[in-house]
Design a protein that fits this description.
CATH topology: Glutaredoxin
Distance between the termini: 43 Å
CATH architecture: 3-Layer(aba) Sandwich
Largest sheet: 4 strands, mixed
Order of helices and strands: EHEHEEH
Oligomer: single chain
Radius of gyration: 13 Å
CATH class: Alpha Beta
Structural class: alpha+beta
Number of domains: 1
Helix content: 40-55%
Length: 95
């Protein structure tokens, strides 16, 4: 199974079913009218979890094992808290 790479042109959220923080990140981006893509990772985790985590590590340059996994323009942001901080900085620079 080929894993979908993060988008180079907007936010990408690697998400899994039942993840509360995944839902919070989606709600946060939606509230700010920010476009994003969702990549559902349930199948990746069931079929080959370790390969999926290595794939994420190859894009993030760190070992990240929790959800959500958020990228912006192909650059790794982190999870919920890191995304909140990133958006605070991003929005403050827009003015």
């Amino acid at each position: 199974m080929e894993i979908e790479a993060p988008s180079e042109h907007n936010f990408t959220i690697y998400s899994k079913s039942g993840c509360i923080n995944c839902r919070k990140v989606k709600d946060l981006l939606k509230k700010d009218n920010i476009e994003y893509e969702i990549i559902d990772c349930d199948d990746y985790l069931l079929e080959d979890k370790e390969n999926f985590l290595l794939f994420i590590q190859s894009y993030s340059n760190i070992e990240w094992r929790s959800f959500p996994m958020v990228f912006h323009n192909g650059k790794f942001i982190g999870g919920l808290n890191e995304t909140i901080n990133y958006l605070d900085k991003l929005i403050s620079f827009d003015f």
